[in-house]
Amino acid sequence: MIVRVGDLAAFRREVTRRRATAVFAPSVVRESRRTIDDVRRRGDAAVLQNVRKFDRAGARAADLWIDARGLRSAARRCSPDLRAALDRSYDAILAFHSKQRPKQVAHRGAAFGEVLVPRPLARVGGCVPRGTVAYPSTALMIGVPAQVAHVADLVLVSPMPSDGSVDPALAYAATKVGARGLYRAGGAAAVAALAYGTRTVDGVDKIAGPGNAYTTAAKWLVSADVGIDALQGPSELIVIAGKDADPTAIVLDLEAQAEHGGQPFAALLSDDDGILAVVRAVVAGLGRNDRAIGLYRVPSLPAAVEAAAFAAPEHLHLAGARAARMVGRTRNAGAVFVGTRAAVAFGDYVAGSNHCLPTGGTARWASPLRVEDFVHWTTVVTAGRDVSAAARAGATIAKHEGMEFHAASMDLRG
Questions:
Q1: N or C: which end of the chain has fewer CB within 10 A?
Q2: Architecture of the domain made up of 2-22+233-352
Q3: How far is CA 229 from CA 207, 234, 378, in A?
Q4: Is 314 noted as a catalytic residue in this protein?
Q5: pTM of this prediction?
Q6: What mean pLDDT do residues 62-82 have?
């Protein structure tokens, strides 16, 4: 394990450095654009070529698509314990996201009546990453808010495993959220298939969910033609801890974040030398060189909270009672976990909150994936009896702007 040690200034420099290098590498953008163009030209054949190159050399065209019936069949092989755990996760996510269901907004004035109406997206594609196994938790995080929004058609994409099998847990999660099917591809090829459609899968209105650098770059490239939720980069965690925090829990939380891979950002800010020393010794003793954790000495916990606000991390953990009392001062974080018992890992699986969160400092303006991401709004306007005065005012403004026909249209109704 690589341990970086520094003070508050060093922390801010590291955050600034990461933010400056967060843009996509030119080679990633070029390769993603080539893949997208190829999929637009050749459809499933281009996707299959990518699957054979990166995932399963012996993949056939028929292997790309698993329909709802096939998912139900594969889901029956999911173990009872894992099914029960996924059921619990689903119920928690549903309970939290059900509170987010958008409601129409109505206003009735003397001249006009307006109603702002939320309408579900017709078709959504969800990106489910894959490590050594699939991530059914992400299928739930995308699918449940889409269900709550009443999205009619949900298609999931996820890389095909090297042996061509269908992960029973992913299949079970997909059936729980009512997915129409699973398109077994990843990266830019899968994003292009969702954005523009192929013979196998129709194009969607919006693409949601995380992925590798090529997935994210491709989402950015297609965003002029299809909606996207966000550009999720490497995972991030900042732990703020005082002397009353549990160093064992801190190490586990930092390690859990680091195991996401893809150059995650895992850092501890503390005003206590003892906590920093213990965490440093334990982390260094783990003997891993493929992960990096930053340990930073701060003058006070309020200063740590301000530093975290500057970083705007995906996850912020207030470890221990002293840090937990700072929750009212926090801002600019995708998700805040309060107290030693509120492990950040709960948010990935069973807390009910969504684990698709803003990264790369975008928590300054961006939000977690939520039900509203799966609706669009339409304004319905009706004219009332007292429209004449409004017509005169509108026509006056239009004439000032040189819009003769705008003015005439309103004058006619005045």
A1: C
A2: 3-Layer(aba) Sandwich (3.40)
A3: 7, 16, 19
A4: yes
A5: 0.94
A6: 98
